[in-house]
Design goal:
Length: 297
């Protein structure tokens, strides 16, 4: 896997100019075409736009500009409104431009931001991080989602802290810490996927083992998300009993043999007391918007 990633990088470097513009027009298709090219980002040739998907923004390699401003550009006006990694891509990675307490239109988007925000911390500290995804409304009354500030657990377990007030929970979110050799493939899947004999459970809706990810999700009847050491973000839906990979762009552990990317678990968003208080303030404002709308109806 590691050799494949190295070769992918080398091929990408040789197949594009220094600014990321491919030598070809990107019109080739088929299973032999590598979609992730410059900076290991997916090259999007849809509608002949030819841009790279950086998550929070699209990069145009021909014009060497971003197609949109950063979601939190007002907090970084001294650096710029359309910068990447605070102009330090050698040490930093793109986190999606958001943080706990911000508004998302879908639960998947909120969960992906949770994974990008916390998985690097989780891997470095070898501690699980857990949050609730909650339903909220923004100042205009548009329904959406956010996630709570994560509660830090142990190396193999975690439980999100309950929110006070009127809250409608949408999902649970957690990380799995760093790669633990004795857990083998269990590092990168929901706990409860394997039975006591190590076999994959065919019908996950039947899992009721307390303390397992799948068992807890079935008991709560809440969707569950997990960010794993190999860099994947997965979603389990207890209504269907199915698991879906939402993203393979989370920070990943160098020691995981099934590592999905080369995103290093480097600290991107150190959390100070003031920042944590501001995050919680944003969450409370989103919750209050929901309470006011419910009272009005």
């Amino acid at each position: 896997m590691r050799l494949l990633l190295v070769l992918t990088y080398l091929f990408s470097a040789l197949a594009s100019f220094a600014n990321g513009t491919p030598f070809s027009d990107g019109s080739r298709t088929g299973p032999d075409v590598q979609p992730c090219k410059y900076n290991a980002k997916e090259f999007d040739s849809t509608h002949k736009l030819f841009t790279y998907d950086y998550g929070a923004r699209q990069y145009d390699p021909l014009l060497t500009v971003w197609h949109g401003v950063d979601p939190l550009c007002e907090k970084n006006y001294s650096i710029g409104t359309s910068v990447y990694c605070r102009n330090n891509p050698a040490l930093m990675i793109d986190k999606g431009g958001r943080e706990p307490g911000h508004f998302f239109y879908t639960m998947d988007a909120a969960a992906e931001d949770f994974g990008k925000f916390y998985n690097d911390n989780s891997i470095r500290a070898n501690r699980e991080y857990a949050s609730f995804g909650i339903k909220v409304k923004n100042a205009q009354g548009v329904p959406g989602y956010t996630y709570t500030i994560a509660k830090i657990g142990t190396s193999e377990s975690s439980m999100p802290a309950k929110e006070y007030g009127i809250v409608e929970y949408a999902a649970t979110l957690h990380t799995h810490g760093n790669y633990i050799p004795r857990l083998k493939e269990g590092n990168d899947v929901f706990s409860g996927v394997f039975d006591e004999n190590g076999h994959i459970v065919k019908d996950l809706k039947t899992v009721n083992t307390p303390g397992t990810d799948i068992g807890n999700a079935n008991a709560r009847q809440l969707k569950s998300y997990v960010a794993t050491p190999n860099g994947s973000l997965q979603k389990y839906n207890p209504e269907t009993g199915k698991i879906k990979v939402v993203s393979n762009q989370m920070a990943s552990d160098f020691n995981d043999p099934d590592r999905m990317n080369v995103i290093a678990p480097i600290e991107q968003n150190p959390i100070t007391i003031d920042k944590a208080l501001n995050m919680q303030k944003n969450i409370e404002e989103l919750k209050q918007n929901s309470w006011i709308r419910k009272e009005q109806h």
